[in-house]
């Protein structure tokens, strides 16, 4: 389990209140096989957004070695969830609200294995 806190301002807190469910359906990145789901409960305070998360996989064929939340583009970010990962895959991640604002609209959950260190399973993070 890893707890990381990233520096930024708390300006985005107004749009986040209480607890929200978050999920991602994970699909195989060729040549990998398998699938999975990422679920999280998101809790907000004035200064932190905390994700309590869990991942379930099926048919991956190799242990997950790392998991992260990533955004794309020239200023993309990668926030580690676990690495090295140990089953069962679950944990807690805390970020400041402005970082959560960057993540919530465009992030992917990526699971890597030794055979595919850049990602064996991937899926878009969905925040209702």
Strand order of the largest sheet: 5-4-7-8-1-2-3-6
Mean pLDDT: 80
How would a textbook summarize the main sheet?
8 strands, antiparallel
Overall geometry comes to: globular
Strand content: 35-45%
Distance between the termini: 25 Å
Q: Which percent bin holds the helix content? A: under 10%
Order of H and E elements = EEEEEEHEE
User: Which structural class is indicated by helix and strand composition?
Assistant: mainly beta
Seen as an oligomer or otherwise, the chain set is single chain
The domain tally reads 1
Question: How would you sum up this structure in a few lines?
Answer:
By secondary structure, this protein is mostly beta strands.
List the helices and strands and how they pair.
Elements (H helix, E strand, L loop, with lengths): L18 E10 L6 E10 L4 E10 L7 E5 L7 E5 L6 E7 L1 H8 L3 E5 L8 E4 L4
Describe the structure.
- The protein is mostly beta strands.
- The chain has one domain.
- Helix content is 6%, strand content 44%.
- Strands 5-4-7-8-1-2-3-6 form an eight-stranded antiparallel β-sheet.
- The two termini are 25 Å apart.
- The model is unreliable at 1-17 (pLDDT under 50).
List the defining traits of the structure above.
128 residues; mainly beta; 8-stranded antiparallel beta sheet; 8 strands; 6% helix; 44% strand
């Amino acid at each position: 389990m890893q707890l990381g806190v990233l520096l930024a301002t708390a300006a985005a807190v107004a749009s986040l209140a209480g607890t929200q469910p978050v999920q991602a359906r994970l699909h195989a990145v060729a040549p990998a096989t398998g699938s999975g789901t990422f679920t999280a409960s998101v809790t907000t305070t004035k200064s932190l957004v905390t994700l309590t998360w869990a991942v379930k996989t099926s048919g991956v064929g190799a242990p997950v070695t790392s998991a992260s939340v990533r955004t794309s583009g020239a200023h993309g970010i990668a926030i580690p969830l676990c690495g090295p990962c140990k089953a069962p895959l679950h944990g807690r991640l805390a970020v400041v609200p402005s970082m959560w604002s960057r993540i919530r609209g465009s992030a992917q959950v990526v699971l890597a294995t030794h055979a595919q260190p850049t990602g064996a399973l991937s899926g878009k993070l969905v925040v209702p």
